[in-house]
Amino acid sequence: MNLPSFFFTFGIIFNVFNMKHIYGVIVETIYNKENQNNTLLRTSFTLILAAMLYTFTACGLSRNEGEQKEVIDSFSTAYYNWQFKKALKYCTPESEKFIKFAATNVHQADIDILRAQDDGAGHDINDITYPNDTMAIVTITVNNYLRMDTIGCAGKMIKHAQFTLNMRYRNSKWMVHLINLPQKNKISH
Asked: Does the reported pTM lie above 0.70?
């Protein structure tokens, strides 16, 4: 468990224990022997309490934004600096074919351009949205990167461009999920 997950879980447990007194008063009132005939109220309270506990424990645990940012940072640094083998560690298995395709299309002219640069590619995370608990869509801006050109042509240095990357939450971790090679976003004016 990484540090942000620990604090998130600790916060939930702390809040639950702080609310213990309030829940105790409610439970005592509902389950008081004088209210024995109020079965509907007890059943309703039990279902609501179960739903609240489920919400505290289930919702949000997969949305560990710190982990997502770490994965996006590591993937983007590797991928946009053409370190494809390293980038592959942060991807879903289905993404492997796209990374391998990019790696097989590197030419000496591309390597020469990369080596001539003073600084490597950099990036900024602009936005993370969640269609559901196991998917995230991340928008990044990549600066000073070498854009792969058509086969046989050297790539071109690009000052900055925006990309959208998909992520999936699988086996208790976030991974980049490619459905093709990352393409820069079209900016509409």
From this structure: no
d(CA 45, CA 33): 16
Is the distance from CB of 168 to CB of 157 less than 8 angstroms?
no
Q: What is the mean pLDDT of each run of 10 residues along the chain (189 residues)?
A: 48 52 59 60 59 48 76 96 95 96 89 90 94 95 88 83 96 95 76
Mark out the alpha helices in the chain (DSSP H runs). 3-18, 20-30, 39-58, 65-79, 84-88, 96-104, 108-116
Separation in Å, CA 151 to CA 90, 100, 103, 113: 26, 15, 12, 16
Buried b (16+ CB within 10 A) or exposed e, 34-51: eeeeeeeeeeebeeeeee
Phi, psi of 144 (to 5 degrees): 55, 55
In one letter, which amino acid is 150? Answer: T
